[in-house]
Amino acid sequence: MSNAFPLTRLLDRGSTIFLVLLGAFAIAIPVLNLIVPAGSSLHVSTYLVALFGKYICYAMLALSIDLIWGYAGILSLGHGAFFALGGYAMGMYLMRQIGTRGVYANPILPDFMVFLNWKELPFFWYGFNHFAYAALMILLVPGLLAFVFGWFAFRSRVTGVYLSIITQAMTYALMLGFFRNNFGFGGNNGLTDFKDILGFNVQAETTRNALLAISCLALAMSFLICRAIVTSKFGKVLVAIRDAEARTRFLGYRVEAYKLFVFTLSACMAGVAGALYVPQVGIINPSEFAPANSIEAVIWVAVGGRGTLTGAVLGAFVVNYAKTYFTSGALAAYWLFALGGLFIAVTLLLPRGIVGTLKYGFDRRAAAKSLAAEAGADAELAPTDAAPRAAE
Amino acid sequence: MDKQTTSALLYLDGITVSFDGFKALNELSFIIEPGEMRAIIGPNGAGKTTMMDVVTGKTRPDSGDVFFEEGTYDLSKLDETEIAALGIGRKFQKPTVFEMHTVEDNLLLALKNDRRVRATLLWQSSAEQEGRIDAILDTIRLKGVRSRVAGSLSHGQKQWLEIGMLLAQEPKLLLVDEPVAGMTDAETRATAELLKEINATKTVIVVEHDMTFVRDLGVKVTCLHEGSVLAEGTIDQVSQNERVVEVYLGR
Asked: Domain segments of chain A: what residues?
């Protein structure tokens, strides 16, 4: 088998190209923003840096969805919830960093709590003034929710459309909760007005570039983790579950344990994406939990090609670029039509998505070649291709 | 119920399963001795597949006992995964191989091995495993197509691959549901040979409609009808039984 050496297993041609491009992007954008003078035609504006940073975070969310949908067949229509929870954990840290610079200049309480006439910090805000604690929560909160949710869902063998529906319900319920002022997360307005992160001004050009580079790094690492998983025997079991769940169970695999592991990991990844997203867009509010957001993220994966990893990233970029392009001009009113049209077009014309279609073409060419070689060598070894006569 | 005193590998006693009032199995009892090969025949709806579902943990019996390995394990209390781990392998009526995986990956997934999450995450291929896969590929005569995607195999090849996957699990008991459905005569004969080869080391239960094939196997036959045993014995005894002729074989 070809997976003898771990590194070659991880980095096939497509993955290597992807990582090189991502690395080049992470270096080129800050260089073009910070070093190339503003007048030059090559200069990249700070607005674009923040925009690309946002795309990278979306790409990470798409990657986390592709891992469970593309490989394990778990269609989560509520993955935005994990993204938003990671975002809120980061937002809480950023709120605590504001200190006396807030409107009410309260050294402990964020502005919205003062406004609500709260006297002391709720217990679940404790510790968020430390970055390390916040970082832990960014992984832990989405991970724990996914673990508990998955434990019940997968053990009860909830699959397919039913699972999709309850994931929607989960994100919707969280949205309603976070909308409430007494929930303790800023209600409708969410968390915003951030000042600095780890002592650096979040608005500063250098910070924005650094955040972009860090997001690229996080995306690259997530990608490598996903590759390590899908190319392992574990990954083969996932695909087996996706294609024939009952069969996998009869082979003796504990299907729910496999799903639970990959679902929880995916939620942690989405949480990190959300955490990197918040300082770059400067706000997190309950609308991030909106079911439509989660569905949109699934569309990114479908457009790029599910079960390809690189396709998820590409899809997130392509669709979001289109969204930015459409919604910033006279065409703004038609964006939802364009998105709907895109989804229909991809489903009808490119059911494998962009990368999936390319891969399929390559694989078929390779298969045709090996089949031609095989036909010469060991045709007599294989049983004759039976024309199956009607059995029953 | 306590541990049973029986020498049987598989012991079914008074199994009843009903779906919405319809009795798929009605007080079904039979035993399979270690090393035996048994053919199960019977008309559609006789309960052959439901019997397999009960043995493999997919369906729980409403009443009755299912014991494995001389009464050591009560199968009605275990789920599919636990039963598979005990060493009961199943081949489905419709060949269900993992279509997107290559032939050798299908076998790799079936290979007896640690099935836990951590073990598969850290898995490394080894010469020993490759050797086992090679040996199975030889047995099921699919060596030439080892790196082809299973979905591209012919119907007969898929049936064989599935038998190979059963072998890879190294089960003590194999349940084989209609292995020759849709096969050519030559393939049917070859499959009978293959099953006999397998039976040299393992206990096998074969459900099949094809009477020529059952005759080729030359083993004890159990005929089911409406969820219980109608007749049991050699193929000649069973095929001369009047009730069997009436409900199943036809005149």
From this structure: 14-370
